[in-house]
Amino acid sequence: MNPVSYLYLSALLFTIGGVGVLLRRNAIVVFMCVELMLNACNLAFVTFSRMHGNLDGQVFAFFTMVVAAAEVVVGLAIIVSVYRARHSASVDDASLLKL
Amino acid sequence: MSHAAAVHRLWTEFPTAAAVDAPKKIPAPHIEYAQLSPTLIVLGAAVLAVLVEAFLPRRARHLTQLALSVVGLAAGFAAVVALAAKGYGTGKAHAAAMGAVAVDGPALFLQGTILLVALVAVLGFAERRLDPAAHGRPVDSFAAQAAAVPGGDAEQEAVKAGRTTSEVFPLLLFAVAGMLVFPAADDLLTLFVALEVFSLPLYILCALARRKRLLSQEAAVKYFLLGAFSSAVLLFGIALLYGYSGTVAYSGIADVVSGAVRTMDPALAATTGNDALLLIGGAMVLMGLLFKVGAAPFHMWTPDVYQGAPTPVTGFMAAATKVAAFGALLRLLYVVLPGLRWDWRPVMWGVAILTMLVGAIVAVTQTDVKRLLAYSSIAHAGFILAGVIAVSPDGVSSVLFYLGAYAFVTLGAFAVVTLVRDAGGEATHLSKWAGLGRRSPLVAAVFAVFLLAFAGIPLTSGFAGKFAVFKAAAAGGAVPLVIVGVVSSAVAAFFYVRVIVLMFFSEPKGDGPSVAVPSPLTSTAIGIGVAVTIALGVAPQYFLDLAGQAGVFVR
Each residue of B274-323: pLDDT tens digit? Predict the structure, then answer.
């Protein structure tokens, strides 16, 4: 199979993630969309790695996974603490900081 | 594609007997530990600080953490100075750690700046005299227990037990370590990891305010979601650049961009060089960096986060993140994409003009001091971008100088904001600052110095920096940009002067805020801010020369 197809798939996933971040209201869902974007990046890295025949992309994918895991830890901690204080994880409810 | 097939057989086919008999030796990477010492020292101090958190009794932690942070950051700065003295800033500049980290003039200059900024910021973190003591124990600006619900029973209990979040010190040290690597990153992998290493601690630090914690948590959520979104965009851009060039090393990508490839693998030659990937990827990486810099149209997070975060954290974030992110932006544009400058310069022109105008004009309508300073930082990002666009050694050195000057003014200004308080904590609404000059002339005068420096009045560091940046931009052929810059400086000067007028020429209100008497920590921080502001304004030449010597990137 032509590896370029995987690039289209990765661009599609990235776009779905990006649209989700911009449109969804729940902070957890927004965060999951960010993770989808990161995974789309991973798919692109691995595909390019296959196309170029070198390993840089695969190494990069491992680093991305580690970073995504670290981001989950920090992000969920923040979102959960906000949920406990407000009983809502909606991004629209968090609007105290408007002028 | 024969080469590709050879690589992939490694994990798709069972190894033959011959291959098992003769395992290939993988050469160990050569790491120049001495040249990476500033980062390693700070990281080591951060790890030690985590251990302190785990093993020391609560009473001893605050002082130990403060001492450890100060010693770690000072030792890091000494290491930077030692490297610069050995000539790594000029003649011996090269890419260390197998080409992952550059040790050159701009990197050392920015690392030195970041370390000094962090050293001053730590003093603000450790301040414990501004809030009245709770249950007989002094408290700092950070929540007693971050996980407790604000105002709930658990929090009351934590306050009563005298808990403090002394984890802020290791978090600060980790953030600083990431920031030290960020402007020195010489490949995209290092860039991305450094970005995350300094962003993640900052997200947490934002959520830790003792007072107004709902605002603080909200700021953290916004910063986190937008920051994660922007780093995902940056990452996809990196993937596309890798797809374009077949490598993540800056020099390798630059070679493919300029078409001057020294040794191109035939397998790679067939799959690289797609210009669409280069343009889209470059744009997405730039977007990620411009978000961190706080340039319009990626500035939306700045006012909310600056307002909601605990003020010492805001000061640190505003100063150090800007320095680190502009360092990375400069290196990307000057080392990776110089061959593409006819494509990125018009875009950056637009971004710079928009940033200057948005920052200056929206700031006029602000009524909160921290939001005002946030919009002013956006405007300043625009001024610095004008220097970035110059694409000349003068441009680099003027940006370096501006960053150093701006960082200390910002730190000082936010430190003053922590002092003006009423019953609810910091009184950040501008109406409460009316008549401050009558009540506490010294604090008001110091804040006026910082505002004048922001406005770029002569004899302050702001003037020297702006002059250098605009001169470089004009010499680089960006005269319209300079005109927009001067006009928006004038608009910006209006609201800075308005605050000064408010402080000195209006009657103080009866229920106005009081000015807290800080411990020597904050006084020292503000004193350093004023001293640097005046020194860089009155005698900028030495520092301009220093920045001028440091203005060459290693390739």
Answer: 889 999 999 999 999 999 999 989 999 999 999 999 999 999 999 999 99
| Chosen from A31, A41, A93 to mutate, greatest number of chain B CBs within 10 A | A41
How is residue B113 written in tokens?
Answer: 């700046």
Closest to B271 (Cβ–Cβ): which among A10, A51, A84?
A: A51
Using a CB-CB distance cutoff of 8 angstroms, which residues of chain B are in contact with residue A84? 149
Judge: B221–A38 Cβ closer than 8 Å, yes or no. no
Question: A83 CB near a chain B CB, below 8 Å?
Answer: no
Which pLDDT does position B12 carry in this prediction?
Answer: 56
CA torsion angle A3 A5 A11 A16 (round to 10): -130
pLDDT in tens, B354-374: 999 999 999 999 999 999 999
Helix (H, G, I), strand (E, B) or coil at B424: coil
Q: Is B429 helix (H, G, I), strand (E, B) or coil?
A: strand
Chain B residues in contact with A59 (beta carbon < 8 A): 189
Q: What is the CATH number of domain A4-86?
A: 1.10.287.3510
- Angle among Cα B39, B44, B46 to the nearest 5 degrees reads 95
Contact B275, B245 (CB under 8 A): no
Q: What is the mean pLDDT of residues B259-284?
A: 80
Q: Is ipTM strictly over 0.95?
A: yes
Q: What is the edge-to-edge ordering of all strands in the sheet holding B514-515?
A: B425-426, B420-422, B514-515
> Residues of B with CB below 8 A from A93's CB?
none
- Tokens 């196309």 label which residue? A51
